[in-house]
Amino acid sequence: ENSSAATTTALNHHHHHLSPYDDDGRPKRTGTVWTTSSHVITAVIGSGVLSLAWSIGQLGWIGGPLVLLFFSVVTLYTSYFLADSYRVGDPINGKRSYTYMEAIDNILGGKNFIFCGIMQYINLYATAIGFTIGAAISMM
């Protein structure tokens, strides 16, 4: 009787992997290490990298590498934080957060969700202005 239950569990588990949907009903993600790496590279190597050498040069041989190291640690910390907040509650079976705002709503909720949303859009707006000015200066 136990072997029958084990076989049924194994079959259900096997069929779960054949399903085109994840455990939350959304289409299964098909990313690989290569697609993930390409997304990380395109996110990290952006227009900000173009001014990195000049910024380091302005800070000098001591300040430049120290600031670069500091922001590397901040980036690593926030990456760990975002990875930990991908699922709420249980890291294996918890509810997934597909967007930054969904993670904020699942974890903090309420007024914090509204405040973080406003801050996110202000940041997006300010970044767009900065990129527009930077592009205009570069074209000159």
Automatic annotation (TrEMBL):
The chain crosses the membrane at residues 36-56, 62-83, 121-139. It is found in: Cell membrane; Endomembrane system. Residues 29-139 form the Amino acid transporter transmembrane domain. It comes from the Eukaryota. Its main location: membrane. Keywords: Amino-acid transport, Auxin signaling pathway, Cell membrane, Membrane, Symport, Transmembrane, Transmembrane helix, Transport. It holds the Pfam family Aa_trans. Residues 1-11 have a biased composition (Low complexity). It is a multi-pass membrane protein. Residues 1-25 are annotated as: Disordered. Belongs to the amino acid/polyamine transporter 2 family. Amino acid/auxin permease (AAAP) (TC 2.A.18.1) subfamily. Carrier protein involved in proton-driven auxin influx. Mediates the formation of auxin gradient from developing leaves (site of auxin biosynthesis) to tips by contributing to the loading of auxin in vascular tissues and facilitating acropetal (base to tip) auxin transport within inner tissues of the root apex, and basipetal (tip to base) auxin transport within outer tissues of the root apex. May be involved in lateral roots and nodules formation. This is Amino acid permease 2. It comes from Stylosanthes scabra.
